[in-house]
Amino acid sequence: MLIMYILIRDSIDQGSIKRYDLHDRQHCSRGDESVNRCFVRPATGSGSSEEYDRYSSGSRQAKNAQAAYGFVPMTFDARDYWAQCPSVGHVPNQGCCDSSYALVPTAVMTDRTCIATNSSNMVFSAFDVISCCADCAIYQKDKCRGGEPVAVWKYWNKVGIVNEDCLPYSFANTCIGQDCPIRCVPGASGTVAGNKKKGLEYYTVMANVLQIQSEIVRNGPVEASFDMFLDFATFNGEGVYMHRSGPYMNKHSVKIIGWGTEKGTPYWLIVNTFGEGWANGGVAKFLRGQNHLHH
């Protein structure tokens, strides 16, 4: 089931979602038969899932939603619509560290800041979240074992997050979290505390297709969480992903940047955190409007 707990808000910065993530403990190549060993489950609960409505084009629900949310195009790709913001299409690689709980929220913050200010100078640091947020990671002694995305949005709102130039992501080859630095890396000026940028607010978008689409068109990419199965982790990018077989792995978060239809099948266009070697350069089409994730 796709959990459309999504994050967002406008002004200068925005965002908010729920639940957490995939737990990638190794470098797992696409199609690796041992990929099941690359994932572990968190000790804490995953929370409840909410199903979102599927609207047919002629239904009463669709017409009411259209009136409420405004015009929604049949296809949309935020990479084209906001071409001045290269971060929208950037594909992060969490590597050995289970850090999508930090990578996806900071990516959405970065995208929306660029869209709101027409400037790509601010790239929010996932390293800051992993190393410096006391409430974001599930285990403070091992911050590369997953976290709670909603805590990331609260941290951004209350404490602030530095630019990637100050604290670049450096967990690609380590499975162990690092302590929060006092100063930025060599070559970047100032202290971590002195480089914080706060978000104004964050909020959740209700879980229905047209409202999510409207939110993306108006304000930019959003974050969503869903139940991840093995066939998603090994998806080769051919066609539209729909869960068909394989064991349940964990909760996972991705960035939604658009939607469309392929051979009559509606899909979300998502950016994952597995690097460019996954699916189609790190981007995939994910079945939209059906509850196909059961376990």
In short:
With 295 residues, the protein is an alpha+beta fold.
Q: Describe it for me?
A:
It comes from Culex pipiens pipiens (Northern house mosquito). InterPro entries: Papain-like_cys_pep_sf (IPR038765), Peptidase_C1A (IPR013128), Peptidase_C1A_C (IPR000668). This is Peptidase C1A papain C-terminal domain-containing protein. It holds the Pfam family Peptidase_C1. Belongs to the peptidase C1 family. It is a single chain. The chain has 295 residues and is α+β, with helices and mostly antiparallel strands. It has a single domain, classed as Cathepsin B, Chain A, CATH 3.90.70.10. The chain has seven helices and nine strands; from the N terminus they run ββαβααααβαβαββββ. The strands form two sheets. Strands 1, 3, 5, 6, 7, 8 and 9 form a seven-stranded mixed beta sheet that branches. The protein has a two-stranded antiparallel ribbon with strand order 2-4. α1 packs parallel to α6 and α3 packs across α4. The longest helix has 18 residues. The protein is globular.
CATH architecture: Alpha-Beta Complex
Number of domains: 1
Low-pLDDT runs: 1-63
Q: Could you state the CATH homologous superfamily?
A: Cysteine proteinases
SSE arrangement, N to C: EEHEHHHHEHEHEEEE
Mean pLDDT across the residues is: 79
* CATH class value: Alpha Beta
Return the CATH topology. Answer: Cathepsin B, Chain A
| SS summary, helix count | 7
Beta-strand segment tally: 9
Structural class: alpha+beta
> How widely separated are the two ends?
9 Å
General form: globular
Strand content: 15-25%
- Radius of gyration, in Å, reads 18 Å
Please bin the fraction of helical residues: 10-25%
Largest sheet data: 7 strands, mixed
